# Entry
Amino acid sequence: MKKERFLIGIDVGGTFTDVMCYELATNRLLTAKVPSLPGAQWRGVVEAIGALGIDKGAVTGFVHGTTIATNSLLERKGAKTGVVTTEGFRDVLEIGGTRRLIGGLFDIKFQRPPPLASREVRLEAPERIAADGSVLKAIDGFDFGPLVEHFRKNDVKAIAVCFLNAYVNDANERAAGAALRKLMPGTPISESAAVTRERGEFERFSTCVINSYLTPTMAAYLDTLTAALETAGVTAPVNIMGSNGGAMTLDNARGYVVNTFLSGPVGGVTGSVGICRLAGIDDCITFDMGGTSTDVALVHDLKPRISHSNQIEAHPLKVPQLDIHTIGAGGGSIVWMQPDGTLEIGPQSAGAVPGPACYQRGGTQPTISDANLILGRLPTERSLSGGLVLSKPLAEKAFQDLAKKIGADDIVRLADGALRIAVAKMAGAVREVSVHRGFDPRDFALVGFGGAGPMHAFNVAEELAIGRVVIPRFPGHLSALGQLLSDHRHDSVRAWGGRVGEIDPAAVARQFGEMQKQGEARLTADGFTRDGIQHQFSADVRYVGQSFTLAAPWQASDGSLQPLKEAFIRRHEETFGYADPHNDAEIVNLRVVSLGIVRKPILNFAPEESGDPLIEHHKVYFEGGWVECPIYNRARMAVGLELFGPMVIEESGGTSVVPPSWRIKVHPSGALICEHEGYE
# Structure
């Protein structure tokens, strides 16, 4: 009998590990949720797959979102990294852009965090490439032996090769990398132009050093994960979610760790795009609230915004990432008292272990989840996903202890106040990706997902006067679903251009053609055929004399550069509120996105259970008072069902808390399309 075949998406969060499995033969979706294991993410992955109860040998596709790179950098737990650089440029990482970080501008005690590679292991080599790419001093024949001996004495575990102007001509970097690999076999060597081919030595050097710093940690994790999966019976190739919204092979993830920084959150954005496409919604803001943090991103015309100039703490990161803004507010975020006696939420989290007090795992500090339980928004009679049963007495005890410290006499009002503070913080995050980017959030639908997203999305929407909220089916597993919907993706960039009015369009086409061939070669090596490969072209454009660029699309059919300039003018008007069609523009970079199209799940949602969706009525705290509120089972809600708030909708992996004045309807996609009666 032929084995059934399954595709699996795994999302590792700070509190839970979510898995979604798609059965190819039946179009059925299976889900599971297990606690994440700090320091051993791979165990949570294996346990989550085991909880599905499927034949592991029948898994044929596997995409994994991981926070290994992010956590390793934030906790500074990467490998000791050495640098080989051009003579005279040993201190580029130290000097940086001679700018203070945001928040340190007015701090008289501000100190820049130390670079990831300390000065004693940043060494120079006699090479030089001119700004036009000509070789002023070749590296051929240079003896790297003394440098290697120095690295060994200082216990260096990874090396970054960062030469000046290598983005134009990387011949010296490639020669140096080859020589170092012969002398230090097994040591990860990163070359800056191979990691990112953009101008700006500080940003490029920083990105390359980050890549080297994290490579041993990521490689060790991936080796452990693949071995554990094979032992468990999963032999399907493992793919890793990339920060750019696409998947990558295991080898690419090992070599270009900097491309995995947002590996977990981007799955939710991809999943939101898939759900909104089915629901006929072009513009949305994703609202992913988990146990530890909340991630928000803006999607315009079904395209997530991409940022190419990023920063992790003090470290520039010059790689394409989805423009996701994260704050430390999740279901496990701790509610605490500041020295001045006021309430604060997070960023500290109770995590998965011990978790919120109501989890009955030893936690004693009050959290957002405890506040929701006190206000009647979470069940105590029915278990949550993973068999978790909540304890209201433990939640009340945690808030009573806080009430004594803060001088409050009503834990219900205290819990409500904590949620209001959390909502204000999360609304601020939504403003960051919308208002601060030139968009009005009222023009977008808010997509609430994650374990805690549906509980708070409506309140955040009301705070911002957003009139439409979308709650996908399986909201707690949407990030895992997004992994299954993601194509493979390679981004390439070339620093090339000039004034639009002076460039030959044929020269632009030739440059894009060369980049397209490179992207196609990489995807072919990943196993894709030419018929399964697509390319997208764009240029970074600015007015002559500007410091910052905007991306404008380019089509191979364009016979001139006028459409490119017109697209730039529209983007400038949308972003900054003005544009000057008479001023000449210039191209700074060319970009090509190469996509390897994968087989997508057919999202055929239908009620999993029959019967009346109404479970019971009980009191829930809304807008300063208790309301007798219906509680529904989402697994029994048929397409076309229309209901009016207030209500609570329970399902595996998420609970939707719908305040008064909201009307919901079950869409054929399975999503709840929710409209506020007071907004147009």
Notes: The chain has six domains: 6-72+219-260, 76-212, 266-329+422-484, 333-419, 488-596, 614-676.
